[in-house]
Design brief:
alpha/beta; 7-stranded parallel sheet; two-stranded parallel sheet; 10 helices; 13 strands; 16% strand; Epimerase_deHydtase
């Protein structure tokens, strides 16, 4: 067993709970889980996992001050991730102010930090998808969620007082087990699987741009098992601090994704195209693709799941069986 004491925020959520499970598998059980634990629909994500304590998100900083625990590492995965929430104040509280408090604690106590940023910061992609430190200051995210994540990235880059090691991970389109509670914000694979089970077909958004055919909108889909491996590698190796993209580096079409989902349940594809809702039409990313060179240059060598491999594993071993990671 590893005695290191690790904080995971957003621990009951999709990526956070998978990270907790992975840390357990690597012998880490002294885990301090931070989240809003009032939501019953997230509870199954933590079943069977080992940890020291759960701490409510809004009382975390008071708890730190009172208990003054020895902490070896913080994974700040928690965030308000709803891209359809247009009240910026909600995003600002959790994604900017709260993150700044975590950062300042890490500086004061000399604790390394990995935090979740997002590919939503890249907006329409007109400036490309490089994770250098000049780009965040030019970016124009398309929604309040993306804006809040970019605001914190910019703030972090400008700080002279920094944790001993820090990495901001720009998650691209993450999919995989433990996203059952995410409703509208769950991955297209999750929704596709449920549509196939219910109706025998999948509805995909029509393209509303002449340069993209229906179903050929492209995203960098990355399997959550790769995401948590990178998080763990960063903790183990502490390479150069900074912002890092986290995708596969290969954009794929939504149509490919859905076909892979059908293949996962041994069914012929049946896809129907529908109009995109008006409220997201002008805020929709048609193409994302992570430039992954920075992470590779720092020495990360593990192979990423291909879209087909990841979807196959997710559909056959989790969705089809109602299992959690």
């Amino acid at each position: 067993m590893n005695e290191s004491s690790i904080v995971v925020t957003g621990a009951a959520g999709f990526i956070g709970s998978c990270l907790v499970g992975f840390l357990n598998s690597q012998g880490y059980t002294n885990l301090l889980l931070v989240d809003d634990f009032s939501r019953a629909d997230k509870e199954p994500n933590l079943q069977g996992k080992t940890y020291l304590q759960k701490i409510e998100r809004e009382s975390f900083f008071d708890w730190l001050q009172k208990d003054d625990p020895a902490i070896d590492f913080i994974f700040h995965i928690g965030a308000r991730t709803d891209t359809t929430e247009f009240n910026y104040a909600i995003h600002e509280h959790l994604n900017v102010d709260y993150s700044q408090k975590i950062w300042n604690y890490c500086v004061e106590k000399n604790v390394p930090l990995v935090y979740a940023s997002s590919a939503a910061t890249y907006g329409g992609g007109e400036f490309g998808y490089d994770d250098n430190h000049e780009l965040p200051f030019k970016l124009k995210p398309l929604n309040p969620y993306g804006i809040s994540k970019n605001e914190f990235d910019k703030w972090a880059i400008e700080q002279t007082a920094q944790p001993p090691f820090w990495a901001g991970l720009k998650f691209f389109n993450v999919y995989g087990p433990n996203e059952y509670h995410k409703a509208r914000m769950a991955s297209v694979i999750f929704h596709s699987f449920n549509q196939i089970k219910k109706d025998g077909l999948v509805k995909l958004f029509r393209s509303h741009r002449p340069d993209f055919k229906d179903g050929q909108q492209l995203r960098d889909f990355v399997y959550v098992k790769d995401v948590i491996k990178v998080c763990y590698w960063l903790m183990q190796n502490e390479p150069a601090s900074g912002i890092y993209n986290l995708g596969t580096g290969k954009a794929r079409a939504f149509e490919d994704l859905v076909k892979a989902t059908f293949a996962g349940i041994d069914t012929s594809p049946n896809i129907q195209f529908i109009d995109m809702p008006e409220d997201i039409r002008d805020k929709y990313q048609y193409f994302t693709e992570a430039n992954m060179q920075k992470l590779f240059n720092e020495g990360y060598t593990d192979k990423f799941y291909s879209l087909e491999e990841g979807v196959q594993d997710y559909v056959r071993n989790y969705l089809s069986q109602g299992k959690f990671y």
